[in-house]
């Protein structure tokens, strides 16, 4: 998902901080090194997942100081250290290092200071021998950089051997430490962002199941609509970020029914005119609920799905009577998924129709109720 919370979290302040730290050391680094540091800093606002980020950061770290191989370790839920990305190592070597080296990595992160391990000291020699044994080649030098952000231990960056056989020195250490401070902030922000996203999605699911629980006849409706809507989105190759927003919009499309009184919502017969008018207010009530949720930039697409999913392509829908492409794409997609699930579901006053009959109805209403191109896409998907 794109970095839709960027402004909300004020990450730009963190960026300034990182660049100021770089500036302190700028005269000691080459322009290429500073450039790499700045490029890596830009990853702060990337929309990559943690798994993708650590791969890039690992490679950049190794290239920056000219390390032959390396590992990026992150602390798991139970604080255990796990290699999340490697450079120049195969899976077996990573497995052996995990087995033999995780506790050393843990103690480095506890101490919180970057260290260079060389063959010069007895303790260092032993450590290098152990790593060399796991990798099955001679290790002459290694840098260990704890990744710490806002006082919390995130993991460790381990860089092994220079290709020319020389040892890592203080300059390498300073360069690596600057890099590691950036890496820690980037990973920490991404983890925080992922947690926020998970929280948001779980709240949306809770809200949609609260709605479904009110009416036993629509149980699971929101979830099914979101799955069907996603099939259309995938088929039309909608961007991943947009797909996620569509999914959330579909889960919440009927949220306004929370505001419809039981005597209308749970009415077991076809609705009379007065009750129908009340029922027709659910998109507007839903949109009012969605408008309360912050940040607004995130909720905009969800608002569109909730507010306009009852609009019809020929302009005969509600609440605004929008027509054609005036209806936002998310709403046009949800309308098809919503109709299919409604037609195939049992209601107290009628039995649900078969999927084949529902598809036939959608085909007949293409261009009237539904976007004809999207209806065609849906029919193609479902006929499979
Ligand atoms: Fe619905």
Structure, explained:
- With 384 residues, this protein is an alpha+beta fold.
- The chain has two domains: 47-192, GAF domain (Beta-Lactamase, 2-Layer Sandwich), CATH 3.30.450; 215-383, Hypothetical protein af1432 (Orthogonal Bundle).
- It has 16 helices and five strands.
- It has helices at residues 6-9, 11-25, 31-41, 50-65, 91-111, 122-135, 170-214, 221-235, 240-252, 262-265, 273-279, 282-291, 296-308, 329-344, 355-365, 372-383, and strands spanning 69-75, 81-87, 115-118, 141-149, 152-160.
- It has a five-stranded antiparallel beta sheet with strand order 2-1-5-4-3, sandwiched between helices.
- Strand 4 (141-149) and strand 5 (152-160) form a beta hairpin.
- Helix 9 packs across helix 13 (296-308).
- It starts with 5 loop residues before the first helix and ends with a helix.
- It binds fe (ii) ion (FE2).
- Residues 221, 225, 253-254, 338 line the site of fe (ii) ion.
